[in-house]
Amino acid sequence: MSFQPNPGDSILINGKSYKVGQHPAAPGLAYAQAGRQGIVYQLVPQDGGPEEAKALKVFFPKFRIPAMVYQSETMEIYSESPGLQVCKRDVLTPERNGELITEHPDLLYAVLMPWVYGVTWFDVIAEQKRLARTESLALAKALAAIGSGMEQRGLAHCDLSAPNVMLPFFSEVDMPGNKSVVELVDVEQMYSPKMDRPDVLLSGSPGYAAHRTVQSGLWSAYADRFAGAIIMAEMLGWCDSHVVEKAWGESYFDQHEMQNPCERYFVLKKSLERNWGNKVAELFARAWESQDISSCPTFGEWLVVLSAMNGEPPIGEAEPELDGGKEGAPARSQGALESAAAAAAVLPEEPPLPPVGEKGAAQAGKDHGVVDRLFHQAREMERKGDLKGALEVYRSAHHFVPAGSPMQIELEAAIAGLEETLNPKPEEQAAGKVPFYRSRKWLAAGAAALVLIGGSGFAVNQILADQAEKREAEAAEKLSKQQEEARKAELQEEEKRKQAEAEEKRKQAEAEEKRKQEEDKALARQKAEKQKLQEKYEQQAKYEAYLAQKKLAEEKQKAAEKKRLQELYDKQAKYEAYLKQQKILKQKLEEQRIQKAKEEAARKQQEARELQKRRSNQVVQLIASYNQAYNAQKGGNTSKARQYALSFINLYEKDSAYFKTVGKVSSRANAIYKFLANTGYILPNI
Q: Please, which residues have CB within 8 angstroms of residue 64's CB and are 6 or more apart in sequence?
């Protein structure tokens, strides 16, 4: 890329002046980190503190997408969420930054965002340095809390991996306010219901992508569950030296091992079960054995289990010692550790556990406390109108209540009510007609009759009174009959409804019975197939035993025949002469063999001397190439240093097995490999 700034170069963006930061481990080189989509440079404000530092992400041409502007504007509302501060982004466009883009065309649609201090989880794995239990728990809790918050808002990172998980927890830069334990970066692939599907989708990172989805792009609300489970399991397992020693390299698992039975899986699962309990191991196993990412445990389930723990080791175990004395180990104070661990968890910590003899009661009390907190949290979400979030929390709490308990009944009722509210059934329209005595026509006729009766003279009133009473009696009788018929119709409708419900229950019972019968038949078939296989195995075993006996009998017969022939040969008079001739012939052959062996030995000695001489010259060439690369780098000529480094590697790999055993050639080779992988790496003076 043509945009290759030097440390200290000034750059003006949106009216504010920045200078390019210098790499702390490579003086003279810009502080830059390369990723799959581009390169990120550190920009330090000319008149501000380190907390105002920015990250400038310059994308490769394939990923310079104009829609990045709308995506970044949509993302900004998530920047206040824990672990997502890089969502506060500013995209460089021709309209606002035309002069800068004209000078540096590669900055088109580059993104300016907050700089996150600290190492990545990738760095922790690569160093293979064990963590303390409290550190492992704090990191895992923080990631679970971030993932849970994102899931509740329908978000997913979609490329969750070790290089994209930053750990400000280990940063030595003091930031104002509460420093986040974990931050997520590289959020260009983020899923949100409010954002459009990206033009280019990634398939996950090796060591963290489920093998069933690695060939297709990940972009859904469930995309982080599998990778998140792997990273949290790694974090929890990194306090165990056995897990650290088994790591594949840049991640704990090799991509070819993902979701397959392998040694690393069983080592990590056993470590989680031993150090953190069965619930954590079960969550990890559910993710590993899942058929699709949506069936993996939610981050909320991880958070519930981890929030019920503390950093203390189990009774009878001691906190493992860390390699704190080694150079490069992250420095942390106890106060910072405790505050970070407390800030990581969304839910409060549980009260201290009772003595070992009350283990069962302690577990029950712990689960009860978790259920209560989840229940109140769901009620609060339901009150605020977040019905989907409340439903998920209710379902999470349902896993921790005992069967048949009052809380289980209440949770099931709440879940059923929310499901009915979120997925309403079409209401049945009432088909009944309005009774005639409530119709407008009947009321108008009655009013007219009253007016006629009231308006007649006294002479007519007496005649009409009897008729009116008769009509009123008939109307009352008719009204009574109409009401009785309406009540009968309502009773009939109620009876029909009850019959329909009974019929539905009967059908459900029949379906359930049919399902059970099918299950029984399936079990019977499986049992019969198992029996057939067992019989087949037994027949195979008998046949193999028969073959073994037959082979033994044949060998015995051959041995007997050989013995008989030997006895015949012994009886022949010419056999001794034959043996004598054979002996003379063998002596001549042996002399020839000895002579050839001497000549071969002399030849090999000569070749060994030549090989030793050639190797000695090559060792001198390797040391010279390393010194040239070291001097070129020290002189600031990185390209020349790279040429010498390549020359070193080409010669070294021709006979690496020998060079590893000579002096410090192996140390030089390791330094050269690191330099070629990252030109920012400083070659040591060896």
A: 108, 109
The Cα 162–Cα 153 span in angstroms is: 23
- CA distances for 166 relative to 118, 120, 139, 344, angstroms: 7, 4, 10, 14
CA distance 278 to 311: 16
DSSP state of 191: B
Q: What's the pLDDT at 470?
A: 66
DSSP three-state, residue 23: coil
Q: Which residues pair with 113 in a beta bridge?
A: 55
Give the DSSP letter of residue 88: -
How many Cβ atoms are within 10 Å of 142's Cβ, its own excluded?
A: 30
Q: For residue 433, which phi and psi values (nearest 5 degrees)?
A: -95, 160
- CB atoms closer than 10 angstroms to residue 678: 14
Cβ neighbours of residue 129 under 8 Å, at least 6 residues apart? 244, 322, 323, 326, 329
Q: Which residue has the tokens 């070819």?
A: 256
d(CA 230, CA 252): 9
Q: What are residue 57's DSSP bridge partners?
A: 40, 111
pLDDT on residue 149: 92
d(CA 60, CA 35): 10
Q: Which residues have a Cβ under 8 Å from the Cβ of 132 and sit 6 or more positions away?
A: 239, 311, 319, 320, 322, 337
Q: What is the pTM of this model?
A: 0.48
Asked whether 12 and 100 are in contact (CB, 8 A), the reply is yes
Two tokens, residue 384: 């605020």
Strand (E) or helix (H) holding 600: helix 574-634
Task: Choose from 312-321, 390-399, 444-453 the range with maximum mean pLDDT.
Answer: 390-399
Question: How remote is the C-alpha of 617 from its chain's centroid?
Answer: 51
Q: Kindly write down the DSSP assignment for every residue of 531-552, as one continuous string.
A: HHHHHHHHHHHHHHHHHHHHHH
Measured at the CA of 298, the angle between CA 297 and CA 303, to 5 degrees, comes to 105
Task: Spell out the residues 6+ positions from residue 269 whose beta carbon is closer than 8 angstroms to its own.
Answer: 281, 284, 285, 288
DSSP state of 603: H
Q: What integer is the mean pLDDT of 184-207?
A: 81
Contact (CB, 8 A) for 287 and 280: no
Q: What does the alpha-carbon distance between residue 504 and residue 104 come to, in Å, rounded to a whole number?
A: 72
Q: How many residues does the chain have?
A: 686
Q: What are phi and psi of 58, to 5 degrees?
A: -100, 115
Contacts of 206 (CB under 8 A, 6+ apart): 250, 251, 254, 255
With H, G, I as helix, E, B as strand and everything else as coil, classify residue 305. Answer: helix
Dihedral over alpha carbons 650, 653, 658, 660 (to 10 degrees): 100
Residue 47 pLDDT exceeds 50: yes
Cα 107–Cα 680–Cα 203 angle in degrees, nearest 5: 60
**Residues 147, 454: Cα–Cα separation, whole Å:** 81
CA–CA dist 249, 272 (Å, integer): 20
Q: Which residue matches tokens 């577990």?
A: 363
Mean pLDDT confidence for 51-75: 86
